[in-house]
Amino acid sequence: MKRSKSKSDLFHLRALLLFSIYSFVLAGCAGKHEQKAPGAEAFQRQHYSDVRVMSWNVKLNSILATEGARYESFARIVQAIDPDVIALQEVAKAGLAEQLTQLMNNYIPLENGESWQVHTVSDNALISRYPLQQQSGELPVRYPIPELGAPDFHFGYAAALVDIPGDFADTGIYVVAMHNKSGAGKENVRLRQVQSDSIVRWIRNLRESDQANTIPDNTPIVILGDMNVVSDASMQPFETLINGDIIDEETFGPDFRIDWDDTDMADARPSHNGKEQSYYTWRNDEMPFAPSALDRIIFTDSVTSVSRRFILNTMMMSADELAALGLQQSDVLYGGKAGDYDHLPLVTDFSLRSEARK
Question: For residue 112, what is the domain's CATH number?
Fold first, then answer.
């Protein structure tokens, strides 16, 4: 005799159905950003729709050649972080865009045979899993470096509108990847100020343009890179990017606040592994300089908010965290040398503010 289904049976059937649907949804989401093993939760996106941005001065093309000091560790780190957009500094050589495209396609293959996009200006590389539109940039600061084979080197910045689906589909995100001149002293500060003034002018002209290369109102803007924020020299070049205070108005025009609500840009201010204890982005224990937050990620917080932010420091990670992310303890050390971090990778996850959604 067949037994009629009890309330308990129906409950279990419904639970099984819900579990199957949930598993299917998770499997679909894993196509873009793979779920990491337990132990990596502090480094994962909080929301599937978040856009993850990474910035790293990798030093002297160290990720490009198989014998490079960061060649193997860079592969592990980008796979662990799984960024959507990357800004690299100190990468410059013939065929750079093609080589970076090949590396990223190998490290993080995209769906449907799609390819990573790369835009380079000076020693900046802007890399994205999404299309890069309106690729542009400037070279405002000439600084010959003949000892490195660059007698006509210019510091500059690469800019592009990243065409991102989902929450950001209406506007995309406009990204400026930069590298400022390092060092203390008046001349170095002046050169950093020239570049900061130039970037503010660039975005002012972009926003005020009625040409096809303008950006829609309320487009999120992110400026990131090795800004060489040398606090004991002068904070003015960095403050210019934050508040739009152009110093050389005769050359670069009037002041202009970059954020859409006419307020200051926000500093994401990531900390080591998100623990809110250490904030330096550069360190070399063999040099007479204290660890410093030279690198920054700033953004228009009127339309964008930060979901997660961290500076990856594998030297401070547990064995479980390293294993979950496929990393090695010394991966952030330059060439694995104790005490020599050079620059560390910065990561920020962005979401669109609810009031900015249409």
Answer: 3.60.10.10
